[in-house]
Amino acid sequence: MDKVDSTVDPVVEQAIDTLGLRGLTRRRLLGGAGLASASLAATALLSACSDDSDGNESGKATGANAGAAGAAVGNFPATPKWKFVFVCHVTTNPFFTPTQYGAEDACKLLGCEFQWTGSKDSIVAEMVNATNTAVTAKADGLALAVVDKTAFREPVNKALDAGIPVVSYNADGARDDVGTNRLAYIGQGLYESGYALGQRALTQIDGGDVAAFIATPGQLNIQPRIDGAQAAIKESGKSINFKAVATNADITKGLSIIDAYVQGHQNVSGLLAVDAGSTQSIGQVVKKYDLRSKGLKVAGGFDLVPETLASVKTGDLDYTIDQQPYLQGFLPVLALYLYKLSGGLISPPVTNTGLLFVTKDNVGPYQTTKTRYQGSNEAPKLVERSGAIAHA
Prior knowledge:
Layout: H1 10-19, H2 23-32, H3 41-50, E1 69-70, E2 79-80, E3 83-88, H4 97-110, E4 113-118, H5 124-136, E5 141-146, H6 153-161, E6 166-172, E7 185-187, H7 190-202, E8 207-214, H8 223-236, E9 239-246, H9 251-264, E10 270-273, H10 276-288, E11 298-302, H11 306-314, E12 319-322, H12 327-341, E13 351-352, E14 356-358, H13 364-368
Parallel strand pairs: 3-4, 3-5, 5-6, 6-7, 7-13, 8-9, 8-10, 10-11, 11-12
Antiparallel strand pairs: 1-2, 12-14
Helix pairs in contact: 2-3, 4-12, 5-6, 7-8, 9-10, 10-11
């Protein structure tokens, strides 16, 4: 055993013996570092171990990705720098800005990386091609927005056959057929959120015409919502004439369709929407034609674009629904990471990212707080809050 400086803390000496460092590294650590306190042990030992090519092998990456190994994080071992691929149906839609921030933050926390790909215009064939490309490139995990219940079945099976874990996010096939063998869905309960949209409207309306606008009928990130809203209103037994109206994925075109509908139905009792663009447009049309003074009883929809929040603040919209898009990026990365880390023993859990009604009473912080968690600011920062937390 090498001669030890009497000023070296016994804890440091014990750690060195446990690591089994070879002679040269041991002498550098004890002599060169001159450690006298256990509080400095961790930093110095990490430095010594990184220079000791014959040291402990248990934390080293193996396999094809070994060259891109990430450092150990927290209490986790060092791993390859795993790459997770997100396939989205509208890659440039601002709704998904906080989703990308969530994935980015989770990757930085865990020492991995992600790719954002898919289709800009909700073209399923482009999404399938992106999925197949990721499988061919041997991605370490996939997160898919399953907006079609048949198109993704085979690509997901190919990924699973290749040992690539797959979760869905934001959209999960149809209510009666999720369409894939994905390990879990992470996102809002779509039918349930639409049902809640309808139930909320029923607290303000007893009869008349209710129009529900949908940008892409049949697409499974929003069709279940309109199905849920219609079911809630039908089950109420009230004399309400519910009509689904197709708008457009292009917000400008969608606005024109909603505007034209309202011009022909100025006595409409309710205007609902199941997508961000249509919700924003409802708020604008309600204000333009002063529909509140003409008997409009309820107007509401989904998501947190600035125009929608402004309409909630002014009362042109009664409410909008927050589905927490940040979590739809952060949680898939976490789930895929833990699956890889545990050798598949920690299977991704089905996770509902929640439903929160944003009304005139609680819209203020959404407008005044600029954070990456809502997609309104890129900089990471702590958001302080105070006061009681609302509850039933």
